[in-house]
Amino acid sequence: MNRTFPDAVSVSLPVRKRSYSRGARWPLALCLALMIAPCHAGENPPSAYLDLSLEDLGNVRITSVSKKEERLADAAASVYVITEDAIRRSGARSLPEALRLAPNLQVAQVGANQYAISARGFNGTSANKLLVMIDGRTVYTPLYSGVFWDVQDVMLQDLDRIEMISGTGGALWGSNAVNGIVNVITRRAAASDGDLFYASAGTTGRSLALRHSGAINDSGDAYRLYAKSSTGKALERANGASAVNAWQRSQLGFRSDWQLPHGELSVQGDAYRGSSEQTMPGLQSVSGGNLLTRWTRQLADGANLRLQASVDRTMRDIPGVFSETLNTLDLDLQYSLPEVDGKQWIVGGGYRVYDDSVGNNDLLAFLPAQRKLHLSNFFVQQERSLRPDLQLIVSAKLEHNDYTGLEFLPGLKLAWKPADNKQLWASLARAVRTPSRIDAEFFVPGKPPYLLAGGPSFRSEIVNTVEIGWRAQNGQTVPYSVVIFHSEYDKLRSLDALPDGVLVFGNQIKGRVNGLEATASYQASKSLAFDASALLLREHFSGAKRAQSQSGNDPRSQWTLGSRWNIDESRQLDVSLRHVGKLCTPPVPAYTSLDARFGWRLSNGAELGLSGRNLFNPRHQEFASGSGAQLLNPILLERSFDLTLTVRF
Questions:
Q1: Strand, coil or helix: 409
Q2: Structural domain count, the chain
Q3: Which of 3, 190, 215, 415 could form a disulfide with 76 if both were Cys (CB 3.0 to 4.6 A apart)?
Q4: Which residues, 6+ apart, have CB-to-CB distance to 352 below 8 Å?
Q5: How many CB atoms lie within 10 A of CB 246?
Q6: Is residue 1 part of a domain?
Q7: Cis status, amide bond into 368, omega within 30 of 0
Q8: Does residue 317 form part of some domain?
Q9: What is the CATH number of the domain that holds 54?
């Protein structure tokens, strides 16, 4: 069970190693904000949230496990919820850093704004077995079935929660939900009524953010507008040389929520632009925008209807490597029937189309350069109460893609609740990772004769997972959960040689992964709590010798210990100790990192935060990428400090 303690948020993000003429404006902006801060009203003091009982925290409502709203304590899955307050108290500066709070995720920083994130293994810079959504909008790219983390950003102060489910979720969420699902959910506009100013500065960078929200009318309709800008300086390599990856990024967006005569309507969107340095000539550049509309209606018979549509445009240019313009249209429909005689049905379907255009060069190419991909699906789920304390959940999804045709994704789950604060569940599920463009259409060099000629016969990667979990609360102060799982993988990507020596991508690798996930919390008092978590993995792969290093290079263990202390009504201290085991191929030593944050509420609407990261050692490595000299001279993360100011008007 997740254990977090809500308050208010602050975020900090990094800066370039150069001077800015506008830097002198920062002290003035901070002073003005502090002068205005006492005018703010309506915020709950930090300690108010620590008065919540563990039972109340278990009543947090989530939606990602079964595609309907349910209590966290009733969710039959390995699920962890990260609240906006937990992010603030951790000192996290970005969405990837916030995901470090989920003990069932593996998060490694690769560069100044590059991350490798996965669940239950298979981590890497091109990790492709984790489905990520922001307010229900899928953000993985069809280029390689993974996530470009440098462009996934939200106003962290406006987050409601992040739901992280580890385990196979293809029966509900489709392909790519192989090892887990991350669903980032922002608050309704009415829940963040008012204005907000945020600033941070530290050894790794700077960030500014503004948010304005308010009521549209007296019927509960509301809107929210935000803008944020961040810069980050380059990291250093082991020999002290610059890694040449300084970056800057700006983003703005909005959300509006409407109460209509026949349902509720939400409209939201974002636009962003950024750039980063690279060792080759020229700057990498990214830009894009998205628009999402969601309509829900509660019908008279208790049924619920939801229709969601989104459009997304992303542009990426990496001089000397490739460029891409991707347009996405996504439609999703879900109909939840009312429960009758202990049975409830949920049915739905969706259609997504990608219009992808890649700028090729002599080094590498995606052929054809322009590609339109279609993805359609239909799913059905039935929940049946076999008796008051025993529930059976059967789900299945049919999904069609342009590479492999129709895929069948079933799931079966049995949940037993001997008491309201105890639950045992077991599940069996199948999922697939359907081919991406890099699997089938990637060529090196960009013109014949080719050394690598795509994967003309590449099929979907398959996983079958069995999972057993137990969640309970011992007395009033100790909630805990333990999950064990076994996954069998087939048709994993391999690099095969044809008779003429040309390489192609194939499906010659098999594997199995066994693991254990455990979390526990102890609330020593209303103002002090402790958290602990552990993740153990055992991986084995067989088949083609080539490219086996792409699978199984994960730490065999990782654990965290944390404390949350409200010193008084105005001051807080949070400490987190995190250990990650070594990586083998390429080798990365194990490391232990100590992070801490001190928060001081200056007034009813202003808070200062001082965060320190990697306090144990001056610098350490978290991941290895590149080849040759880059592996011998890796990028290191240094000890860093950030000062943040959050003012609510």
A1: strand
A2: 1
A3: 415
A4: 138, 328, 329, 330, 331, 374, 375, 376
A5: 23
A6: no
A7: yes
A8: yes
A9: 2.40.170.20
